[in-house]
Amino acid sequence: MSNERQQERSEVLQSLRWENDALSLLDQRLLPEETIYLRLSTPREVWEAIRELKVRGAPAIGIAAAYGVVLGAREHSGTQDSWLPEVIRHAEYLATSRPTAVNLFWALDRMKAKAKTLSDTGTPTSEAVQALLDEARLIQAEDESTNRLIGEHALALFEDGMGVLTHCNAGGLATAKYGTALAPFYLALEQGIHLKVFADETRPVLQGARLTAFELQQAGVDVTLICDNMAGHVMSKGWIQAVIVGTDRVAANGDVANKIGTYSVAVLAKAHNIPFYVACPLSTIDLSTPTGADIPIEERHSDEVTFGFGKRTAPQGVAVYNPAFDITPNELVTAIITEKGIIRAPYNDNLKQLFDR
Ligand code: MRU
Predict the structure, then answer these.
(1) What is the rounded distance in angstroms from the CA atom of residue 232 to the CA atom of residue 238?
(2) DSSP 247
(3) So what's the ipTM on this one?
(4) Bridge partners of 258?
(5) What is the pLDDT of residue 172?
(6) Residue 245 belongs to what H/E stretch?
(7) What distance in Å separates the CA atoms of residue 268 and residue 235, rounded to the nearest whole number?
(8) Which residues are listed under the site Transition state stabilizer (predicted)?
């Protein structure tokens, strides 16, 4: 096995932050080659950034959309009467950017509810815009602390020396900080626990190669990149003792939507008797969606498949099917790790109880 591991350690890049009255957002399409922060100052720019995967990962797109609402609310701060309808219009527009990750709708609902309270209490629009900004900042800060808790719960499932496979990027870049599935790796590093991480490259957009391998390597985590079709091979060699992934939406019955290829990894894990863990905040669990079959699956442009590596990799005009996510049925999920603890089957009951607690 070749090892091109970089030994220098540095902080994981922050995916987004409010800075100088605008949203400063790391353009993740350019990683790992270029680190460029974009300055977004309109809801439309935020919508495009989400749609084009400049920002991606369920919690991060929710946070970005929350700041998008602030930008929209600011545009209408001179009009007390139409302020609330305009804020709601911007939120509904931002909700059309991507369909699968429920954190987007969760964050927008929270911003709309806050705007409604502010409007109902007759708060002057200039103050209301500031209060919406505070709410977006709070969503971001809560995501960071939530992810740390998820990391602590997840780390309790791992032992020193274990090999752990992950798919896509559910790391600091996909969230406010730490990530969900990658959080235990950062905490393990802090505590001197050695985990050997295998990162699937995650075709077609290569979030595993461009983002997970990048952020873990930068932090000094022991990470080995593999192509997606190598996962079964490394499992058969006995190198993987657990799989952990993030998710874009968990249905009420525990079915899990995550990056395309996750389902195949779960089937492989089952075949090799390896536990398959899903890490997510409560904001990713959608009790109003009964099963995985009810989760809308985004289909993306065929170019992602036919121009995958910056050049044509398939014949012109070939039919392409490019779903961005798949559904892992709950029977393949060993446990769901949240900020409130570790949830196991039966998921219908246990997920509901989580919200009742
Ligand atoms: O298309 P993407 O890159 O937004 O997909 C991201 C994923 O599937 C992540 O695994 C998921 O959002 C969890 S992020 C903590």
Answers:
(1) 10
(2) -
(3) 0.99
(4) 326
(5) 98
(6) strand 242-245
(7) 8
(8) 168
Same domain, 136 and 167: no
pLDDT at 255 over 50: yes
Domain boundary among 146, 171, 191: 146
My answer on whether 98 and 246 are in the same domain is no
Count the domains in the chain.
2
Instruction: Return the structure tokens found at 324.
Output: 């961005």
Q: What is the mean pLDDT of residues 280-307?
A: 97
Whether 1 is covered by a domain: the verdict is no
Structure tokens at 132: 């919406």
Domain that holds residue 187: 158-354
Do residues 215 and 177 lie in contact, with contact meaning Cβ atoms separated by under 8 Å? Answer: no
* Closest-lying ligand 1 atom to the alpha carbon of residue 61: 4
What are the residues facing 245 on neighbouring strands? 278
Catalytic residue, chosen from 143, 200, 248, 255, is: 248
Amino acid identity at 140: Q
Compute how many other C-beta atoms are within 10 angstroms of the C-beta atom of residue 39. Answer: 12
Q: Which residue has the tokens 């950062």?
A: 186
Q: What residues contact residue 228 under an 8 Å CB cut-off, 6+ apart?
A: 167, 200, 201, 202, 203, 208, 261, 264
Q: Tell me the pLDDT tens digit for each residue of 129-162.
A: 999 999 999 999 999 999 999 999 999 999 999 9
321 token code pair: 């099917």
Which residue, 146, 167, 183, sits at the end of a domain?
146
245 CA: nearest ligand 1 atom: 10
